[in-house]
Each structure stands twice: as C-alpha cells, then as structure tokens.
Amino acid sequence: MRSIVISALFDTLPQFGIACLRFNFRGVEGSSGEHSEGRDEPLDVAAAVDAAAGARAGGPLTLAGWSFGADMALTITDDRLAGWVAIAPPLRFRPATAYDPVGQDARPKLLELAGNDEFRAPSEIEVETRAWVNTRIETIAGASHFFVGRTARVVELTAEFVRSLSRTTETG
Description:
alpha/beta; Rossmann fold; 4-stranded parallel sheet; 6 helices; 172 residues
C-alpha cells in the first residue's frame, strides 16, 4: 500500500480528477487475517471494489494494482469495472487460468511493464498475454520492478488510460 508505485498513483492521480482507494491485503501491516499467498486475496480486491463503487461520485471504476496487487486485480471481473491497469504483474501468484476471465473480457486493459523487471521479463508477460483481448502493453524503458525514477511515467500512462475510459463511458 505504501510502495513507491502505489504512493505515486495515490498522491498524483487526484490532481487529474481521479479518485483513488488504496488498501492493504489481509495480514499486511495492521490488517486483520492472514496472508494466503494469493488464494484469498482476490476477496480483498472484491471488497475494495465494493467500497469504491459505493463511495464514488462518477467516472469509470478502474481496478489498478502493482506487482502482487496487479496479479490479484487481474482475477476480478466485476461488472462495475470499466477496465484494469496492471503494473509489473508477475502473473505468478495464481494459476495461469485464473487470469483467463479478465484476459478474455472485452473491457480495456493496460499492462505497464518494467523494461528491466528483475522478477519477470516483459517478453515473458507479452507471450503469456498474447491471446488477451483489448489489452494494451506499455513497457517503460530503464525501469526496474519498483519503477524508481520512473513513477511519473506510470502515473502518466495510468491517468491517460482512465481518462480514455471516461471518454468511452461518456460517448458509449
């Protein structure tokens, strides 16, 4: 929740008129429950979607996550979502088939990959997601998995994507 990537998004996206909700997964910091290595954490994401949907004042409901959080976000196909942003998703915390429902969902997806990701090469993610529909992949050159010195680009891509969802929602 307090990683450099999530903090940059949470601190900057409201300047673009994009409201944000961030949370810790079960068992992290002061959160109740126990970490289950990706088995139960999609329930935490679903609860966050419920909270965000109940609190939002308009605009597209977009699910965004980084690393483990991106993997968990890519397991949720809630009808209220307009799209997904997955930042440096390792696509390893769930069985590969767990991502298929989102991958085959017609709603837009943005994958922001780190050019020098030390956990999973962008080329591997590109191969694994090749059959996904309506998926845009942006690789940020020179970025590590933690995007040190590259968070401005992450914010820029994310804000542009959410604004494009807003335009689609308004015209569609």
